[in-house]
Amino acid sequence: MAIRKINEDIYNIGAIDWDRELFDELIPLPEGTSYNSFVVFGSEKTALIDAVEPEKEEEFLRNLKELNPKRIDYIIANHAEQDHSGLIPKVLEWYPDARVVTNEKCKGFLMDLLPLKEDVFDVVEDNQTLSLGNKTLEFIIAPWVHWPETMFTYLREDKILFSGDFLGSHLALSNTFSNDDSQTYMAAKRYFAEIMMPFRPMIKKHLQRLEGYDIEMVCTVHGPVYKNPSFIMNHYQEWVSDDVKNLVLIPYVSMHGSTLKAVEFLTDELTNSGIEVLPINMTKADLGKLTIELVDAATIVLAGSTVLMGPHPQMLYTAAMINALRPKTKNISIITSYGWASQATKTLKSLMGTLQAQWLETIDYKGYPKEGDLEKIKALALQIAEKHRVLNLL
Ligand code: FEO
């Protein structure tokens, strides 16, 4: 991707990966991703804010060569993960006098992850500033976005927040700036769900702190630049709040149709009560489809078949991911179908110990759901409706 001008004397020389399908060998990237890297020319000094993924070395160095800064005085590392730090050693080869500017914790991570020696670093504290001449960088230590060493860099004169992964989106786009449309919204929500959601309390604090800054533009390291920061900030406020939607999420796996029958019955019962329902077949859907809905679903009901006495492996994975992502879901239950005996419900429940949600009645039934089993599912639907009423969702 070519060099993109962000503001006067500020350029994005990062790369776009149109084809990347997985991040961390875990997170599906249906719309690719980008790795943004910003060059800020001050009247006296030049700074590079974050580098890019090593796989994109050729594209990044081509842009750097074309922009051709006479000098890079500072390489600002807002985050140590290699998709933003991996090419710092290469930049240092080209600009050996550059100082790597970051916080103490990030310095340690960078030395663990990359061939960097201690004497290349300048360590900064929270709120410390760095003058580039007519432009001033302020560092805001913001841990757990989504690693413990993360920070933001605020460019005072231009009122630009360089936010690292925070507020980002895995979205490969040729346009420099966000269209603030539904595509951007969904990509940002997916990104929040998969990467930021487990750190909701910390994210909430960072958003509060940023209210004290006059921000006219947000440059994240993934996805387009926000010229209207309130678009993404307001959505983040909503996602980190305790508010939930009148939605029941049903991740399920059905081997012979018995679980599917229960899922369809529960879906109908809930729908008749005025509740939105989303069944997701976990053998077909990608992780993102589930995680996006986890952001604000009031209730989750896992429904699955039994394999060799335990949960279907896809349901094990689903339960482990829900537990790791720590959604704000208020109610949770499990429905299990089995052939002769099952420990599936017990096992799945034990895997979701971090959730603050209230456990509702769980249901185990043998084979195809019979009249008595459907009565139990109906009772579960009534219990969920009552819980949603208490939450003022109905
Ligand atoms: Fe985009 Fe945490 O790296």
What does the secondary structure layout of this molecule look like, with pairings?
Blueprint: E1 4-7, E2 10-12, E3 15-17, E4 22-23, E5 27-28, E6 33-35, E7 38-41, E8 46-49, H1 57-67, E9 74-76, H2 82-85, H3 88-94, E10 99-102, H4 104-113, E11 121-123, E12 129-131, E13 136-141, E14 151-155, E15 160-164, H5 182-196, H6 200-210, E16 217-220, H7 229-240, E17 245-253, H8 258-272, E18 276-281, H9 287-294, E19 297-307, E20 310-311, H10 313-325, E21 331-338, H11 344-350, E22 358-359, E23 363-366, H12 371-390
Parallel strand pairs: 8-9, 9-10, 10-11, 15-16, 17-18, 17-19, 19-21, 21-22, 21-23
Antiparallel strand pairs: 1-2, 2-7, 3-6, 4-5, 7-8, 12-13, 13-14, 14-15, 19-20
Description:
It is built from twelve helices and 23 strands. Helix content is 34%, strand content 25%. It has two domains: 4-240, Metallo-beta-lactamase, Chain A (4-Layer Sandwich), CATH 3.60.15; 248-386, Rossmann fold (3-Layer(aba) Sandwich), CATH 3.40.50. By secondary structure, it is of the alpha/beta class. A hairpin with a 3-residue loop joins strand 4 (22-23) and strand 5 (27-28). Bound molecules: MU-OXO-diiron. Residues 79, 81, 83-84, 146, 165, 221-222 line the site of MU-OXO-diiron.
